[in-house]
Design a protein that fits this description.
Blueprint lengths: L1 H12 L13 H7 L5 H10 L1 E4 L13 H8 L4 E7 L12 E7 L9 E3 L8 E3 L5 H17 L4 E6 L7 H13 L6 E6 H10 L6 E4 L1 H15 L8 E3 L4 E4 L17 H13 L3 H17 L14 H11 L1
Parallel strand pairs: 1-10, 3-8, 6-7, 6-8
Antiparallel strand pairs: 2-3, 2-9, 4-5, 9-10
Helix pairs in contact: 1-9, 1-11, 5-6, 7-8, 9-10, 10-11
């Protein structure tokens, strides 16, 4: 709650034109209503088509399935977009990193098609991965369109087609086909294990990256680690007619209510939301204020990014810089 209050206060100071409709989801909603994704929450997203979602707790191994996955599938939010950019005055292993990972959000192994082969002993489990030409073409085209619109020079497609010849083989085949329509943008493909190595050796060589669901989940967190962690990177989930923006770090119930949480990831996600709805000036205003805060008023930032402050002091510092 602290970080959503921080973000809405900062956007208000920047004169962003947003009318907030607050709804619940996740473990808190489950405890209150017995449903981790209440119908009125879904109805609000159906009506307004844009959501800014705070971190939600999902039980590990048991309990209800991820609300994040459910929302992505229900609203066909096939593009998970995860920028990773070096920030000023943030301690990180690399400098000059500026990549954007496009992860297919609705298929792969995350569709949840699992079964026990031996339902009694539960000693043999299977999962099914789904990759279709249509979904692959949508996410790969989205990556190329983003590259073209944002003056990016290269799209790197990540796969494991040497082993998973049908599923990621199809993804690679579609990628090569789509690339033919974008002769102005360089195209390359990399096997996922090589990609992981290259990212921790020469991350600066990557620009826009597109891949399947599981690989994208792992590589986007790796990319965040290159620039300071999940606490300093935003995320968007975008479909043809709906979009959801979220901080991808966990809900951190151990520090909830203590004024310790770092709002940067949620804030950067909200700036992606502002860009999506055409409020570019407000987004730019906030971004400049954040950079100024990191450089000139770092002491007011939260300890996880090298400051000595709190959620409140960071929020006020950004508002002052606005």
């Amino acid at each position: 709650k602290e970080i959503t209050n921080s973000v809405t206060s900062i956007l208000e100071a920047a004169k962003a034109e947003v009318e907030w409709v607050e709804k619940s989801a996740g473990l808190g909603a489950y405890k209150a209503t017995g449903n981790p994704l209440p119908e009125d929450t879904v109805a609000a997203i159906e009506e307004h088509r844009v959501a800014l979602k705070g971190p939600l707790t999902t039980p590990v191994g048991t309990g209800f399935r991820s609300v994040n996955v459910a929302l992505r599938q229900q609203f066909h939010l096939y593009s998970n977009i995860r920028p990773a950019r070096t920030l000023p005055n943030i301690d990180s292993p690399f400098r000059n990193v500026d990549m954007v990972i496009f992860r297919e959000n609705t298929q792969g192994l995350y569709i949840g098609k699992e079964q026990w082969v031996n339902d009694t002993a539960k000693d043999h489990a299977e999962s099914i991965a789904v990759v279709t030409e249509e979904a692959s073409r949508k996410i790969i085209t989205a990556a190329f369109e983003y590259a073209r619109a944002n003056n990016r020079k290269k799209v790197s497609l990540v796969h494991k087609a040497n082993i998973l010849k049908f599923t990621t083989g199809l993804f690679l085949q579609v990628g090569r086909s789509v690339a033919e329509d974008y002769s102005d943008i360089e195209f390359e493909d990399l096997i996922v294990d090589n990609m992981a190595m290259q990212m921790v050796m020469r991350p600066q060589r990557f620009d826009v990256v597109v891949t399947t669901n599981l690989f994208g989940d792992i590589l986007s967190d790796l990319a965040s680690g290159l620039v300071g962690g999940l606490g300093v990177t935003g995320a968007a989930n975008i479909g043809d007619d709906a979009a959801m923006f979220e901080a991808v770090h966990g809900s951190a119930p151990d520090i909830a209510g203590q004024n310790k949480a770092n709002p940067l990831a949620m804030l950067f996600s909200s700036l992606m939301m502002l860009e999506h709805i055409g409020q570019h000036d407000a987004a730019e205003t906030v971004l400049k204020a954040v950079y100024k805060t990191l450089v000139e008023r770092k002491v007011y930032c939260t300890p996880d990014i090298g400051g000595e402050g709190t959620t409140s002091t960071f929020t006020q510092a950004v508002i002052d810089n606005i």
